[in-house]
Design goal:
By secondary structure, the protein is an alpha+beta fold. The protein folds into three domains: 152 residues, 3-Layer(aba) Sandwich (Profilin-like), CATH 3.40.1840; 85 residues, Signal transduction histidine kinase, dimerisation/phosphotransfer (DHp) domain (Helix Hairpins, Orthogonal Bundle); 151 residues, 2-Layer Sandwich (Heat Shock Protein 90). The strands form three sheets. Strands 2-1-5-4-3 form a five-stranded antiparallel beta sheet, sandwiched between helices. Strand 9 and strand 10 form a beta hairpin. The protein is rod-shaped, with a radius of gyration of 49 Å. The mean pLDDT is 81. Keywords: Kinase, Membrane, Phosphoprotein, Transferase, Transmembrane, Transmembrane helix, Two-component regulatory system. It is found in: Membrane. Pfam families: HAMP, HATPase_c, HisKA.
């Protein structure tokens, strides 16, 4: 069912419920008021008759009959029936001769017990009244037909039914028009989104100045488009740079093979060529491994093996690993004062990825430091681990700091050094994957400090 029709149906259903309650309440209380009015009239007539016949000795039955015949009431088909203590009809008056109303002994008994008792026969309504203070057993039955009251109630019922049906139609039409206006921003946003493609990510959805839920939706979609644009741009640069990095050694290998296959050469020449090709293949293999690590670090945490990792044990692996990769590189560790409880040194994450991220930063620090040395410190603060990697290297210009975490980006001083420009980007992806943060401060010619913050306890 279309959402517009769903909104209209819900709006109409709610209106039907409220209007139905109002109409039923009006009809119920109006009927109750009519009945109470009839009871009051009939009771007053019965009381008047009782007082004239039983309290005033000057009024006999003939005079009472004349009084009844001259008394005007709004009720039709009036009748007064008086029963003595034995249940015998002692006095009777009716507008139409013989138009009496049957009264059972049970009705008379009920009137004597409670004073008044209401009963009806079709449209004729009656009150049986007995003055319990006298205890004479006399019961006066006052009868009448409330034609005007019932006609008014019938008219009211017709008006309410017509109003109810008309209200339903108006509610449906109003709801349909209202839902159209309500969903108009959605259609506008949908039309704008249809015009946006991978080749047109610069376009944005007008959010307007209303600051309502539609403004929030448009703003959220615009933020999504900003992220998609950044992702597409990052992917484009990544593919371009990766293709360039892979094509360079392939071109060298292909060129060398073509040259050496043009004519016969000595064994030494072939060996030299194979040695160079091997270096190029190793270079390509290193790049492929780096790309695989980068892809792994870009996954959702749900697809990785997550477990408790002691951050101090990860850092203690650094000196040996750094020295194994390059004997000229060295690392010093400073743990300061650590908590005695083991569970306060745990990070929930993937140990291999965490070590890879920190190792990449430390390797860069050693590579670009004059003494090829890096200082690594660990501080535990507010359930967070703060890891600082400091070097005394060439430093980074302020305008390049925001770019160093981009894949394949290398600052001007690094162009003559080995590497692919993936280390810091890989480290950033891994740290973000573990809900951490990484920042850098640097002074050219003095050194650089990388600060990694990881949450303790859980990712």
């Amino acid at each position: 069912m279309p959402i517009r029709l769903r909104i209209t149906t819900f709006f109409t259903g709610l209106f039907i419920l409220l209007l139905g309650i109002v109409c039923l309440s009006i009809y119920y209380f109006s009927s109750l008021s009519r009945l109470q009015n009839v009871k009051t009239r009939l009771t007053n007539r019965a009381i008047t008759t009782d007082r004239m016949l039983t309290h005033d000795t000057t009024i006999n039955k003939e005079m009472m009959y004349r009084i009844d015949s001259l008394t005007a009431m709004a009720l039709k088909r009036k009748a007064v029936q008086v029963y003595n203590a034995d249940g015998q009809l002692d006095y009777f008056y009716a507008d139409a001769s013989g138009d009496s109303m049957p009264v059972s002994p049970a009705v008379l008994a009920a009137a004597r017990r409670s004073g008044t008792f209401y009963f009806n026969q079709g449209t004729r309504e009656a009150i049986a009244y007995s003055d319990r203070t006298l205890k004479n057993g006399i019961v006066i039955v006052s009868v009448g037909v409330d034609e005007d009251g019932r006609e008014n109630i019938d008219q009211l019922r017709s008006i309410l039914i017509s109003s109810f049906i008309g209200g339903i139609l108006l509610a449906f039409i109003g709801g349909y028009i209202f839902s159209a206006g309500l969903l108009k921003p959605v259609r506008r946003i949908a039309n704008e989104v249809k015009e946006i493609s991978a080749h047109n990510l610069e376009r944005r959805i007008p959010a307007g100045d209303t600051h309502d839920e539609w403004h929030l939706l448009a703003s959220t979609l615009n933020q999504l488009l900003d992220r998609l644009k950044d992702s597409f741009e990052l992917q484009r640069r990544f593919i371009s740079n990766a293709s360039h990095e892979l094509s360079t050694p392939l071109t060298l290998i292909s060129s060398q093979l073509e040259i050496y296959l043009q004519r016969d050469r000595s064994e030494a020449a072939y060996r030299e060529a194979m040695t160079q090709i091997l270096k190029d293949v190793q270079h390509m293999n290193s790049l492929v491994q780096a790309l695989l690590q980068f892809a792994t670090a870009s996954r959702n945490p749900g697809g990785l093996q997550i477990g408790p990792v002691r951050i101090d044990e990860v850092l203690m692996q650094l000196p040996g690993e750094v020295h194994a990769r390059d004997t000229q590189h060295s690392v010093s560790l400073d743990f300061g004062t650590l908590p005695e409880e083991d569970d306060k040194l745990l990070v929930l994450g993937n140990e291999t990825l965490i070590f890879t991220a920190i190792m990449n930063i430390v390797s860069n620090a050693c590579k670009y430091s004059g003494d090829h040395h890096a200082d690594v410190s660990l501080l535990v603060e507010d359930h967070h681990f703060i890891i600082r990697v400091k070097d005394q290297g060439i430093g980074i210009d302020e305008q390049e700091i925001n770019n160093i975490f981009q894949p394949f980006y290398r600052i001007e001083q690094e162009h003559n050094s080995k590497g692919f420009g993936l280390g810091l980007s890989l480290a950033t992806r891994i740290i973000k994957l573990h809900k951490g943060d990484i920042t850098v401060s640097s002074t050219p010619g003095v050194g650089t400090v990388f600060t990694i913050v990881l949450p303790g306890g859980e990712v």
